[in-house]
Every structure is written in structure tokens, then in C-alpha cells.
Design a protein that fits this description.
One of its GO terms (molecular function) is lyase activity. The protein has 20 helices and 6 strands. The protein is an alpha+beta fold. The protein folds into 2 domains: about 300 residues, Orthogonal Bundle (2-methylcitrate dehydratase PrpD); about 120 residues, 2-methylcitrate dehydratase PrpD (60s Ribosomal Protein L30, Chain: A), CATH 3.30.1330.120. The strands form 2 sheets. Strands 4-3-5-6 form a 4-stranded mixed β-sheet, with helices on one face. The N and C termini lie far apart (about 45 Å). The mean pLDDT is about 95.
């Protein structure tokens, strides 16, 4: 099968704007992107990256979110991708097993030079990028992530280049070559979770997409079949046979931005810990003095359900974004699960000692909820108290996930918590009017 050419054809010929639900979800996504990125505008990592980019020089073309400065198109894609994903407060998609908007949106924003806007086509391109990234996630197979690849980085560049291709209405030949260039540069490791490099992998994927499309449109030579065959992307990174069945099946019939849909986060840490966060917050609310009564905490996942939670003994709040032990300890110690708890600040010795009471376990005999998010996942918290009694709480669909989703009003509240209400309202108005160039300027 000529997967590369067929994907390019499907991308360029579809019309996401026929689905009003997809349009509304894209608008919600842009609103959530603004909240996640502007919450990170004071991040230490972005200051270091800005300094490096400014030392390198280049044309001042595209604003960097929250920084009041412009940089080159490729650098803007990288920096804005980093910002959106910096705090792990940005959206997730269960089919991707990663973060689509952190790659797709900055790649698209990099095309808005000289205040040129695309209107609703920008929304359609965003929907397209999410669609392709979700299909890549479905097609690559579970082993890709479990071997240590970071799907946001490895799948994001190809998805974002498809979004750019749709936006700019390039030819099929240009898009197939651009997919090839992006595939050749796709990278990202879960080993980097809990560090500045993790969100930078999203930014690098966005930058790769911009560069790959520039190469293709310049006439630069490259393969038009990078997704195909035994030496192709899926054979190297995952499951070629699965890809041939899943990548293009029913393209455009139900947009993945709608179903299963984007997951807009309530908490600023890895979504794999959100089930446990909901569970412990419920239990603490029921028993405010729980901290002094807990002897042991057992956290039960399905096999592999905690793969993204790479930190069991985090030293800092930043590492704690990927630690269910830290999330539980925060709630038990009476702290809110807010941005302030997940910085580079060192975790107190008292809390680190308490985290040793938390043990992870796995049970493949438990029947998953049919509507669980992600599919087949759950978390059960079992607390053993000093008097020998136990209490427990199971969560299958965390707050913010599809099926328990945030409304537009909820996302506006999230945005208004990091910027003033009038600024948030202006951003919302730009999104509702499909004024992408104004949206970008308001983020600057």
C-alpha cells in the first residue's frame, strides 16, 4: 500500500469544516492552548531558550507567546511548542498517547507571517493535525511508547506537517515529500520526562514540521514513500501491518478531535496520574484528618497503566509531574494540586519520606469500564489506616477527560486564572471570530 501518498491525498481532499462539533472542539483547543502557554510564560526554561535563539539571530517574524518578542518562523515553532507543553498543563489525546496541540498549533502559528490570517481554514488545519496524529498513534502500536519513545515527539512532526500542508493547500507531491522529511527527523524519548527536555521535544517536532514543509516547497529532493514498506516509518518505529489496516480507515467520517476527543487538563501534571488525583482528593475531602491515619497507600493500575509515571522518588516538583506518589502526598498533606506545587523547587524531606508509604500494583483481572479514558485504564486507591481498616476509591474517567469533559466556560476559567479577565475575553473573541492572526497577537 502507498500509505504516504494516500495519507497526503486524504488530508488534502477532506473538509473538516462540515462538522460543527469539530469546529467547536478546535476553538476549545485554542482556548486551552492559550491557558497552558501563558501559564508558562515565566518558566526558567523558556528564558534559557530565548537567550540561545537571540544569540543565533535571524528574522523577527513570529511572536513568542508571552515574551513580547518575535523570532524566526522555525524558532517560534520550537519556542511556542515548548511553552504550550512546559507545565504539562496542555491537552492530551488518548489515541495519540501524547499531546497534539503542543506540536500542531505552534507549527500552524508559524505560518501567520505579516499578519496574514487563514480564518476558518486555520481551524480546519488544526482539526486535520489532530486527526493525523491520532491515526498515527492508533497505527504505531502500543510497543512504540512502551519501548521508550515519546509519541508527542515521534508522531507530532508528521501530524503537524500535514496540518501545514492543509493550511497552505500544497500539492500532493509537496505534502508526501514533507511527510518524508518529517518522518526522517522524528524523535523523542520518555527518558526525558521530568526535565526541560520533555516539553522541548514537542517544540522540536513543531520546528521539524515547519522546516520539512519549507524543504518540500523549495523542491528539495526526498522520498515520497517514507511511511511504506519494510524500511518505512511504521516498520522502524512500530507495526506496519497495523498501520496498513488503521491509518486511513474511514478518514474524515468521525473526526478524532471530537471522538474520542481532546482531554483538557484540570491538573498541571501527567494525565496518567489524574485518576489517582481525583481519587485522593475525594477521600481527603471526606476525611480531612486523613494524613495522620494512613499506614499504607496501594495504587492499583492495569498492567502498563503507569508507564508515563516514570518518577517514584522525585526530588523536585518538576519531576513530581510524573509521580503518582508525589501527587497523592500533596493532597494528603493538604496542598492544592496547582501550578505552584510542580516547579523546580525541592520536595521537603518530610514529604519524600511519607511517599515511601505509597506502593504501586497491577491487576489484569479487573474489568475495565467500557467508557474508561484512556480505553482499558483505571486507577484504584486503597488506603490502609492505622486502626487496620481500609478505604478505597476507583476512578475510570478523570475530570477533564472525554466523558467528564471541561466546558468552554471551564477552560475560560482556567485561562482567567493566569491572565486578567479582559485579556482572556479578547482571546476568546478572536477564537470565536476565527481570527487567527489576532489570536497570535493577543498571545504575544
Amino acid at each position: 500500500m502507498e500509505l504516504t501518498k494516500q495519507l497526503a491525498e486524504a488530508v488534502l481532499s477532506a473538509d473538516p469544516l462540515q462538522d460543527e462539533r469539530a469546529i467547536q472542539m478546535a476553538k476549545n483547543g485554542l482556548l486551552d492552548v492559550a491557558a497552558a502557554a501563558l501559564a508558562a510564560k515565566e518558566d526558567e526554561g523558556i528564558q534559557k531558550l530565548m537567550q540561545l535563539v537571540e544569540q543565533e539571530g535571524g528574522a523577527a517574524q513570529i511572536p513568542v507567546i508571552g515574551q513580547g518578542k518575535k523570532v524566526s518562523r522555525q524558532s517560534a515553532a520550537m519556542l511556542n511548542g515548548y511553552l504550550i507543553h512546559a507545565l504539562d498543563y496542555d491537552d492530551v489525546h488518548s489515541d495519540v498517547r501524547g499531546h497534539p496541540s503542543a506540536v500542531i498549533v505552534p507549527a500552524l502559528l508559524s505560518q501567520l507571517t505579516e499578519c496574514k490570517g487563514y480564518g476558518e481554514r486555520f481551524l480546519a488545519a488544526y482539526i486535520t493535525g489532530v486527526e493525523v496524529m491520532a491515526r498515527l498513534g492508533e497505527s504505531i502500536g502500543k510497543a512504540h511508547y512502551e519501548r521508550g519513545w515519546h509519541n508527542t515527539g515521534t508522531l507530532g512532526a508528521i501530524a503537524a506537517v500535514c496540518a501545514i500542508g492543509y493550511l497552505k493547500q500544497v500539492t500532493r507531491e509537496e505534502l508526501t515529500k514533507a511527510i518524508g522529511f518529517a518522518g526522517a527527523q522524528s524523535a523523542g524519548m520518555r527518558k526525558q520526562f521530568g526535565s526541560d527536555m520533555k516539553p522541548l521535544q514537542a517544540g522540536l517536532a513543531a520546528k521539524t514540521a515547519v522546516w520539512s514543509m519549507d524543504l518540500a516547497c523549495s523542491g528539495f529532493g526526498g522520498s515520497e514513500s517514507v511511511l511504506d514498506g519494510e524500511l518505512g516509518f511504521f516498520s522502524l518505529y512500530g507495526d506496519q501491518e497495523l498501520a496498513e489496516k488503521r491509518l486511513l480507515e474511514g478518514y474524515g467520517s468521525i473526526w478524532r478531535i471530537v471522538s474520542p476527543g481532546l482531554w483538557f487538563k484540570v491538573y498541571p501534571f501527567c494525565s496518567a496520574a489524574h485518576h489517582a488525583a481525583d481519587a485522593i482528593e475525594f477521600l481527603v475531602k471526606e476525611r480531612p484528618s486523613l494524613r495522620d491515619q494512613i499506614e499504607q497507600v496501594d495504587v492499583i493500575f492495569p498492567p502498563g497503566g503507569d508507564a508515563a509515571l516514570t518518577e517514584r522518588t522525585p526530588l523536585t516538583g518538576e519531576e513530581g509531574r510524573f509521580s503518582v506518589e508525589y501527587v497523592i502526598a500533596l493532597a494528603v498533606f493538604g496542598h492544592t494540586l496547582s501550578l505552584d506545587a510542580f516547579t523546580k523547587k525541592t520536595i521537603s524531606p518530610e514529604m519524600r519520606t511519607w511517599m515511601k508509604r505509597v506502593s504501586r500494583g497491577y491487576d489484569q483481572t479487573i474489568e475495565p469500564h467500557p467508557d474508561a479514558v484512556p480505553k482499558g485504564r483505571f486507577t484504584i486507591l486503597k488506603l490502609t489506616l492505622t486502626d487496620g481498616t481500609t478505604i478505597s476509591r476507583r476512578v475510570d474517567i478523570p475530570r477533564g477527560a472525554p466523558g467528564h469533559a471541561l466546558s468552554k466556560e471551564d477552560i475560560m476559567q482556567k485561562l482567567s486564572s493566569v491572565i486578567d479577565a479582559s485579556h482572556a475575553q479578547q482571546i476568546l473573541q478572536a477564537i470565536e471570530a476565527a481570527n487567527d492572526s489576532s489570536y497570535l497577537q493577543l498571545l504575544a
